């Protein structure tokens, strides 16, 4: 997918405490933003996108809360593309594409199977100081 994330016209940023309630808040905020941007919640990519988002936020809550008391979700969209990222301040960067081949990879395996199945992309972008990362998912609409 060649869409440059910087060119997507719709954006929203949400910062939450790294707690279980963040999963629900991230999903509800996504639904609200998509509706405001004119993207139907019935679009075939939206349900899987919300599941992917929930898995990424859940992983942050489970694995990064000790070093990252907050997480940030970045939502972006255009007429033919939906993108979102979950950012935390834990330095570990998972091998996303390895999660597809690992047995019992759990949430990250599900994220990658759904992303690739929809023709999307996933990338981990480390923070400049090496102490955090964002996992970006881009899906066609």
Jot down its keywords.
alpha+beta; 141 residues; 3 helices; five-stranded antiparallel β-sheet
Task: Describe, in plain words, how this protein is organized in 3D.
The chain is an alpha+beta fold and 141 residues long. Helix content is 33%, strand content 28%. It contains 3 helices and 5 strands. The mean pLDDT is 91.
Task: Describe, in short, the structure shown.
With 141 residues, the chain is an alpha+beta fold. It has 3 helices and 5 strands.
Instruction: Determine Rg (CA atoms, Å).
Output: 14 Å
The number of distinct helices, counting runs of at least 4 residues, comes to 3
Specify the biggest β-sheet.
5 strands, antiparallel
Low-confidence region ranges = none
Give the overall shape: globular
Distance between the termini: 11 Å
Strands ordered across the widest β-sheet: 1-2-3-5-4
Query: Beta-sheet strand percentage?
Result: 25-35%
**Average predicted local confidence, pLDDT:** 91
Which structural class do the helices and strands define? alpha+beta
Number of strands: 5
Q: What order do the helices and strands follow?
A: EHHEEHEE
The percent of residues in helical segments reads 25-40%
Spell out the blueprint of helices and strands:
Layout: E1 10-17, H1 21-36, H2 46-64, E2 70-78, E3 81-88, H3 107-117, E4 121-126, E5 133-140
Helix pairs in contact: 1-2, 2-3
């Amino acid at each position: 997918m060649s869409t440059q994330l910087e060119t997507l016209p719709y954006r929203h940023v949400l910062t939450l405490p790294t707690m279980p309630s963040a999963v629900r808040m991230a999903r509800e905020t996504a639904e609200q933003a998509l509706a405001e941007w004119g993207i139907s919640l019935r679009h075939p990519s939206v349900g899987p996108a919300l599941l992917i988002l929930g898995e990424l936020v859940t992983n942050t809550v489970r694995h990064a809360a000790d070093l990252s008391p907050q997480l940030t979700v970045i939502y972006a969209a255009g007429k033919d593309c939906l993108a979102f990222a979950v950012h935390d301040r834990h330095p570990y960067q998972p091998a996303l594409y390895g999660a597809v081949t690992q047995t019992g990879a759990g949430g990250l395996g599900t994220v990658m199977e759904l992303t690739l199945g929809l023709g999307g992309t996933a990338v981990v972008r480390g923070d400049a100081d090496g102490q955090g990362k964002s996992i970006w998912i881009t899906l066609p609409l």
